[in-house]
Amino acid sequence: EEHLRGRVVFGQFRETWFPPGCIADDVRLLSPKGADNPPLITARNLIIRTSWLGLVNRHIGKIKIIGLHLTIPPANASGQSPFMPETAGKTDVSSIAEIEFNDAVLELLPPAEGWRKTTMEIHQLVLNHLADGKTAYFHLSLKTGRPTGEFKAQGSAGPWNTDHAAITPISGIYQFADANLAAFKGLRGTLSSAGKFSGNLSKIETAGSIDVPQFQVDRSAESVHLMARFRAAVDTQTADTVLEDVEAHVGRTIVLATGNVSGGSDAAGKTARLDMTVDTGRLEDLLNYFSREKHPSMTGDVRFRAHVELPPGPGFLRKVRLTGDFGVSGGEFTSPGRQTPVNHLSDSAQGEKKPQEDPRTVLSNIKGHVVVRDGTASLTNVSFEFPGAFAEMNGTYNLIPQTVDIRGTLRTDGTLSDVTSGIKALMVKVATPFLKKKRTTIVPFAISGSSSNPSIGLDLRHKVKL
């Protein structure tokens, strides 16, 4: 009562003498604010053991607490808990060798009305070498709720700040394993993480690594190996997280990001906001996140800058929001059936009478702007080059049915060959009137249909403007 500054009530209590100690059941530490407030601490069982010499030296050998429920109130503007008075009493106990908690629940109360509290279910927590004004050491094992996983940590805590419990220092290392990402609807995979942390009970700085061997987004055919290193700061009272530095690896692609996971005072959850950059990346690595195909439809070097928001709720592809700019060099379709029409467009633009026999990379310097909302990517100011030609286009790509509707124009200063069939003949038919007037040929074209088998050809529905 003196040390924790509240009234302690026992349901049952009995003493033991060999070894000396006591056993208490239904233990409650009542709030100094009155019986109308919930107890700050409750426990099913409290077992205390020491030695006769320990009694003389005011030393306790071991305390075992089963079914603990600990509530930590938020600090006020001055850092003081509103449940605690300004001065602390002194305990007659000089030190405790060990405290063991089993089946404990820790609740961090929210800082404001309407915010959710943070709850942790602790399998086991062992504290060693506890003494007033000293640092204690701990081993912790708990099961997380969302995503479900096993969390283990060890380190040091304290000295305990009785006046301002929330700023009691803490540091150590952790391991997080078997976290099922299916808790976040739209995602699949099992996450593991390891790292270190430091700070206090109200704000913890952490740095570590994440590994998801088979990360997958719903509707994608392939899983990818996702690895990342990060530095972050966690507000334990609101569960808001600031991502200070993230470096993720997907295949040969490196994604750099900063941002936060915050908001969501109700049961809906929090929103992730990230500013992402790729300077060294491969298009095929990123396409695996969204494609239903076993193999990516296109390859090439990619770079982009984007702001991404992921609100809470089910349906990853429908809820993700993205605004960004991208560039691809050395782009090439992986299927000959897709590459051939593009090669024909290039052949016609250069005035070649025979298609090239060898596969060629004809899409280069692809760049544009993309906005993703409600499962649809809107592409604007998109341009790319073929050998002998330059194309500009706008359109949409629906991420859920995976259909594309992109239309634009191809410009070339070359001539079109006289051909009698195929896509070249159509291009000649459309472009011939302009060849007589202008040196630059402008041909409308469209990419439409299923992303797995798109149609690439002339867009005869639109007029050409010079």
Description:
The chain is built from five helices and 25 strands. It has a 25-stranded mixed beta sheet that branches. The protein is elongated and about 100 Å long. The chain has helices at residues 52-56, 283-287, 316-319, 336-350, 422-435, and strands spanning 7-17, 20-30, 41-49, 59-66, 69-72, 95-108, 118-131, 136-145, 148-157, 169-180, 187-188, 190-200, 203-217, 224-235, 241-250, 253-262, 271-282, 298-310, 321-333, 364-373, 376-386, 389-398, 403-412, 441-450, 455-458.
In short:
The protein has 466 residues and is mostly beta strands. The chain has helices at 52-56, 283-287, 316-319, 336-350, 422-435, and strands spanning 7-17, 20-30, 41-49, 59-66, 69-72, 95-108, 118-131, 136-145, 148-157, 169-180, 187-188, 190-200, 203-217, 224-235, 241-250, 253-262, 271-282, 298-310, 321-333, 364-373, 376-386, 389-398, 403-412, 441-450, 455-458.
| Mean pLDDT rating | 78
The rough form would be described as: elongated
Unreliable sequence segments: 82-89, 353-362, 416-426
- Over the alpha carbons, how many angstroms does the gyration radius reach? 32 Å
Q: In sequence order, what are the helices and strands, one letter per element?
A: EEEHEEEEEEEEEEEEEEHEHEHEEEEHEE
Q: What's the helix count?
A: 5
How many beta-strand runs?
25
Task: Please render the helix and strand layout as text.
Blueprint: E1 7-17, E2 20-30, E3 41-49, H1 52-56, E4 59-66, E5 69-72, E6 95-108, E7 118-131, E8 136-145, E9 148-157, E10 169-180, E11 187-188, E12 190-200, E13 203-217, E14 224-235, E15 241-250, E16 253-262, E17 271-282, H2 283-287, E18 298-310, H3 316-319, E19 321-333, H4 336-350, E20 364-373, E21 376-386, E22 389-398, E23 403-412, H5 422-435, E24 441-450, E25 455-458
Parallel strand pairs: 4-6, 5-6
Antiparallel strand pairs: 1-2, 2-3, 3-4, 3-5, 6-7, 7-8, 8-9, 9-10, 10-12, 11-13, 12-13, 13-14, 14-15, 15-16, 16-17, 17-18, 18-19, 19-20, 20-21, 21-22, 22-23, 23-24, 24-25
Helix pairs in contact: 4-5
